[in-house]
Amino acid sequence: MGSRRSDFVPRLARRHGRLLLAVPFALIAVVTVVDIVVPPEVHLGPFLIAAPAVTASFAGPRMTAFVGAVAVLAQSIVAVARTSFTDLNHTYQIVVLVLISIIVTFFSYLRERDESRVTRLRSIAHAAQSVVLRPLPQHAGPLHIASVYLAAEEEAQMGGDLYAAARTATGTRLLIGDARGKGLDAISEASLVLGAFRSARREQELPDLVGHLEAGVGSMEEATPAPEAPSGPDGPTDDTDEAFVTALVLDIPDDEPVVRLVNCGHPPPLIIRDGRVIPLDATDASPPLGLSDVLTPHVTVETFPFDTGDVLLLYTDGVIEARDRTRAFYPLTERLPTWAGDDPPTLLGHLRADLRTHAGGHLGDDAALVAVERLPPKR
After folding, report:
1. Could you report the per-residue pLDDT of 183-201, keeping only the tens digit for each?
2. Which of 38, 66, 39, 41 lies closest to 52 in space, CA to CA?
3. Element at 178 (helix H, strand E)
4. Integer distance in angstroms from the first to the last C-alpha of the chain?
5. Residues 6+ apart with CB under 8 A from 192
6. Rounded to an integer, what distance in angstroms lies between the CA atom of residue 371 and that of residue 252?
7. Cα–Cα dist 182/179, whole Å
8. What are the pLDDT digits (tens) for 26-70?
9. Phi and psi at residue 213, in whole multiples of 5°?
10. Coil, strand, or helix at residue 183?
11. For residues 111 and 118, what is the distance between their CA atoms, to the nearest angstrom?
């Protein structure tokens, strides 16, 4: 099925290209015929310039040059048919057509080179994403897991949002987070947190794991030299940006119907149970990762019921901060009961489509979603 689809896309692109090529050749034919039969005082030759110009917008430099050559040939035929090839008016038209064809061929070369560069960058970004942001397992012990990553930039594969899962001897560890800012800095922070999560010892308790993640974010601040504070009228001012990551760190035991979590300044997870949406609000949230030098670090592990049939939804603020045309935020807790009873992949499929529709097809920030369902114990 996948190979058929991958073969169909290039075939469709080639067919689309052939249809587009008919436009400049049809234009050359129509202009040539009409220019020959109209009265002598009417000159349609300048319209032939449009043929190579249009071709340069979708074809490569070779095809653009070929169309330009055909247009020059057509203009020469018109000159011979109407007066002579050496007629001053037609001579100027031919010279201008040759120059324009050379120019648009050069721009077609530049466009094709840039498109090739973008294609390579996309493949590199896709490879980096597969290494840094690995897909979550569909099943981990008694859990059924699904995840979705929605990049705000259409061409981006990954931003500052992150998620990961790891098995322990007694259950499953989950991580979801959102690195501050955008661009390469946010991706670097996200990769550091993911690397620290994967390198952590599986027997670590949640407070120790959070400390390990905190150290991972701190390593970036130590490696990055602090910029010199700008000077104001009253002396230096401290406008340096702090690198931090909001995160949820969860532990879901295989044999207990609970979920244990540490909330590091992240939006609270939601549990869908019997058609109701229950937010797991932390009574004592920890500061975001990377702010231990600004805020007093403390880690509080909180426990919530998570029984068979419950669906746990983890998300980043790109979901709840998505706006529609009226600037209204996405009503996540109001929409979720609509899909109560769906399994994680189906739930995220509905949620993804509804979120895109709400935001008009363009998100203002990256968004990550992870849905986890506890399945009945196997006999």
Report:
1. 667 777 888 888 899 888 8
2. 66
3. strand 171-179
4. 35
5. 216, 217, 219, 220
6. 13
7. 8
8. 988 998 888 888 777 777 778 888 899 888 888 889 999 999 999
9. -70, -40
10. helix
11. 11
Contacts of 106 by beta carbon, 8 Å cutoff, 6+ apart: 61
Closest CA to 366 of 194, 210, 163, 174: 163
**255: exposed, middle or buried (Cβ count in 10 Å: 0-12, 13-18, 19+):** exposed
CA distances from 156 to 183, 332, 358 (A): 10, 24, 20
Confidence of residue 338 (pLDDT cuts 50, 70, 90): very high
Q: Is the pLDDT of residue 13 over 50?
A: no
If 0-12 CB within 10 Å is exposed, 13-18 middle and 19+ buried, where does residue 335 land?
middle
What's the rounded Cα separation, in Å, for the pair 310 and 280?
13
Contact 193/177 with Cβ under 8 angstroms? Answer: yes
Which residues does residue 301 pair with via DSSP β-bridges, in sequence order? none
More confident residue, 311 or 242: 311
DSSP per-residue letters across 346-376: HHHHHHHHHHHHHTTT--SS-EEEEEEEEPP
Please check whether residue 355 is in contact with residue 329, taking contact to mean a CB–CB distance below 8 angstroms: no
Q: Which residues pair with 256 in a beta bridge?
A: none
Q: Closest Cα partner for 179 from 145, 223, 127, 220?
A: 220
pLDDT of residue 378: 72
Residue 111 burial by Cβ neighbours in a 10 Å radius (0-12, 13-18, 19+): middle
